[in-house]
Amino acid sequence: MGRQLRIEYPGAHYHVTARGNERKDIFKSNRDREKFLSYLESAVIRYGAVIHAWCLMSNHYHLLIETPSGNLSQVMQHINGAYTNYFNVKRKRSGHLFQGRYKAILIEADAYALELSRYIHLNPIRVGVISEPSKYPWSSCRHYTGVQAPPAWLKTSFILGFFGAHETAAQEKYLRFVDELAGSEYKSPLSDTVASTILGTAEFIERIQEQHIDVSVADRNLPALRMLAVGRGIEEIFTAVQGALKDRKSLAKKIAIYLCHRYSGMKLREIGEGFGIKESGVTQTSKRFVVEMEREKELQAVVSKLKQELNL
User: Fold this and answer.
1) CA 52/CA 113 separation, integer angstroms
2) Beta partners for 56?
């Protein structure tokens, strides 16, 4: 498995997950879970991390974390390293506890933090551990819904702020927000992640590419970097799409714009110039095509095949 591209800068937000080695349990007792939470607290105190949401399952965990100091690697080394040491000493074992390095997806907080918090809090529902997310004892959901006061190291105000300034009313609204998807199948917000690395609008991804990815010094062996920094050219993508949809020129153009927007790594201005439309037209065409594709499975199959052919 290729290494993951790490993008770190002050104020960045991430969805972080880590699984047990060979998918084995990393939490075997409530004491283990309490100890892990103590390392979240010390990460806040010592390294300035901001924890917005968390959920501990038997063999993995989820975090929604912010790094005002741009030091995610340092924060996660502390959390996972300290917990691995505790776990190994307690059980007289040695070696890796986690399956490789943690997975961190950089997110556009204003656009995705709320939805990701719900995704995190619904995790126990998805695996059938419990039927009501606010009753699960090992997630931050109960702190968001007024069941239990949050610890000092957990920040709930940012996400609850989407529901208004009054805390109690916001907690009630948040509970309804989470419960409306409990027990039902829904599209994971992480499915829109680009290059397994960034989750955000096209404008956010473009800003990250311009400000935080230095292709002149970065390791081009990273798969995500190749996708974000190099991508595929407009002509290459459009030629492949036209070849697959010879008699459907209008649809071919929409698919080509969508693929360029999502996977080429080019700026909106460059894509727009390539197709003779404005930057806003690129974004709107791509968004409308996503909706159209969700309604028609035939389109999903066509796009999936094209992505494989283009190695997107």
Assistant:
1) 9
2) 61
Q: State how far the Cα of 107 lies from the Cα of 204, in Å rounded to an integer.
A: 9
pLDDT one-digit tens code per residue, 213-240: 754 444 545 555 555 554 557 777 888 8
Domain boundaries, the chain: 12-190, 231-312
In a 3-state reduction of DSSP, which class is residue 95?
coil
**Which fold is adopted by the domain 12-190?**
Alpha-Beta Plaits (3.30.70)
Q: Which CATH number is associated with domain 231-312? A: 1.10.1750.10
DSSP, residue by residue, 204-225: HHHHHHHHH--TTTS-TTSHHH
Classified as helix, coil or strand, 18 is strand
In the three-class reduction of DSSP (H, G, I as helix; E, B as strand; rest coil), residue 202 is classed as: helix
Q: Provide the whole-model pTM.
A: 0.73
143-144-146 Cα angle (round to 5): 70
| % residues pLDDT > 90 (the chain) | 57
CB neighbour list of residue 238: distance below 8 Å, 6 or more residues apart = 252, 253, 256, 260, 274
Residue 304 · residue 262 · CB < 8 Å: no
pLDDT digits (tens, 9 = 90+) for 59-101: 999 999 999 999 999 999 999 999 999 999 999 998 899 998 8
